[in-house]
């Protein structure tokens, strides 16, 4: 028993040391001020928001060229992954962003970012084996040079917000800001925590993640809490948060911090890759032991999809097509579904997708493909049988996803199973020794 206690304490100390020495930073895109960028989170008071303000914060060492609609890679260096969490990729037209800059989300990852490991993947600050993710600049975005940000809300450990920024040059886009202005604002939390905070042990569901959303198969979704938890493109420590776009129904309160969303964003062409350290896009996970997480913009669904690449479907709409089976994560309106529509484990190809007729559309297509099940309320969590859950999208479809170990789904709420009696038994046993 004492050896187990010692081992647990040593493990905890190891996690603490690794969290100090080897947090995560982006290596692709190449960040601003790469030589001066450290791997720590933003200051708890938000004083270094955005982009970890420091001397040389906006020094350009490498310009990242990003034609619209072309797949890009999000890759990391470091091993203190804190159980993963949720991430966003956002942009601003400002070349030297301030706390008042307007950040717009182009891709959201709910769970499994920057890894799907339960703890820290490595104690090496130079480790490059974390997951890699794909994203793209939406078609119709304005041409020019601006700033991209990766933000991360860790699942395990202190309530923190990580933010790295990179210079990008966008080409092949538009001469107006119409598409940019239609995107949701970047989520800000934990800086400071008294305005909005994420919940430890959960993968935060962004109040307004946009329509390019990727959800981990083992994600444990959770709401943020606080009076300022509506999508916000500026720090909670200063300035007035930008309100959600017109198509959102997000409420800026702890009582209802969820949103429905319909505006199309970017279409993805890759699934995350685990354990390769590769800085180029890949179409399948390099480590089969860790299941790939589906891109909601790419038509990748759970249940045995095996393909090395996924084709982007051209569209005449201002932004790439949004999937019929795309999910819109929200805990706003609980609902339930039956287990009759479980994901088809024999699926061998991604389904086809069509863009919504309008950014404000919320009507159902009348059918669901790729193993998705019908659901009544876009934006709600649905329980599918005893071992799966899904997020109802704008077409009233939900893709079944496996529940994380130790969790259950009931009445539209994913929660940890009750283990109180078992835990108390162990505590009593410990005291008797």
From TrEMBL:
Keywords: Signal. It comes from the Eukaryota. It comes from Zymoseptoria tritici ST99CH_1E4. The keyword Signal applies. Residues 200-250, 265-291, 317-370 are annotated as: Disordered. This is Lytic polysaccharide monooxygenase. Residues 1-22 form the signal peptide. Residues 221-232, 265-287, 317-330, 340-370 have a biased composition (Low complexity).
């Amino acid at each position: 028993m004492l050896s187990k206690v010692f081992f647990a304490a040593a493990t905890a100390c190891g996690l603490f040391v690794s969290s100090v020495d080897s947090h995560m930073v982006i290596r692709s895109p190449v960040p601003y001020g790469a030589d001066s960028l450290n791997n720590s989170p933003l200051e708890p008071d938000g004083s270094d928001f955005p982009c970890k303000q420091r001397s040389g914060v906006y020094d350009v060492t490498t310009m990242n060229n990003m034609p619209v609609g072309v797949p890009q890679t999000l890759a990391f260096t470091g091993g203190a992954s804190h159980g993963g969490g949720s991430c966003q990729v956002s942009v601003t037209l400002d070349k030297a962003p301030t706390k008042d800059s307007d950040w717009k989300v182009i891709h959201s990852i709910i769970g499994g970012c920057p890894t799907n490991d339960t703890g820290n993947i490595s104690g090496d600050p130079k480790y490059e084996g974390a997951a890699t993710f794909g994203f793209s600049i939406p078609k119709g975005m304005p041409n020019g040079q601006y700033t991209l940000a990766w933000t991360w809300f860790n699942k395990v450990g202190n309530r923190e917000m990580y933010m790295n920024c990179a210079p990008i040059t966008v080409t092949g886009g538009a001469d107006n800001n119409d598409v940019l202005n239609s995107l949701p604002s970047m989520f800000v939390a934990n800086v400071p925590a008294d305005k909005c905070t994420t919940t430890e042990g959960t993968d935060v569901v962004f109040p307004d993640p946009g329509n390019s959303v990727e959800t981990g198969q083992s994600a444990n979704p959770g709401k943020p809490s606080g009076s300022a938890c509506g999508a916000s493109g500026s720090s909670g420590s200063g300035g007035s948060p930008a309100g959600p776009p017109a198509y959102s129904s997000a409420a800026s309160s702890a009582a209802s911090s969820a949103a429905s969303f319909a505006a199309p964003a970017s279409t993805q062409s890759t699934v995350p890759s685990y354990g390769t350290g590769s800085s180029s896009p890949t179409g399948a996970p390099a480590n089969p032991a860790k299941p790939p997480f589906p891109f909601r913009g790419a038509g990748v669904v759970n249940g045995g999809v095996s393909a090395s690449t996924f084709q982007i479907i051209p569209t005449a709409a201002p932004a790439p097509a949004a999937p019929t089976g795309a999910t819109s994560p929200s805990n706003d309106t609980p609902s339930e579904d039956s287990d009759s529509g479980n994901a088809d484990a024999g699926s061998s190809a991604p389904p086809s997708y069509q863009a919504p007729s309008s950014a404000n559309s919320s009507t159902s297509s009348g059918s669901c493909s790729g193993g998705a099940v019908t659901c009544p309320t876009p934006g709600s969590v649905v329980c599918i049988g005893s071992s799966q859950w899904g997020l109802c999208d704008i077409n009233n479809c939900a893709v079944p996803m496996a529940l994380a170990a130790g969790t259950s789904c009931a009445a539209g709420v994913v929660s940890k199973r009750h283990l109180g009696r078992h835990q108390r038994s162990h505590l009593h046993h410990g005291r008797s020794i």
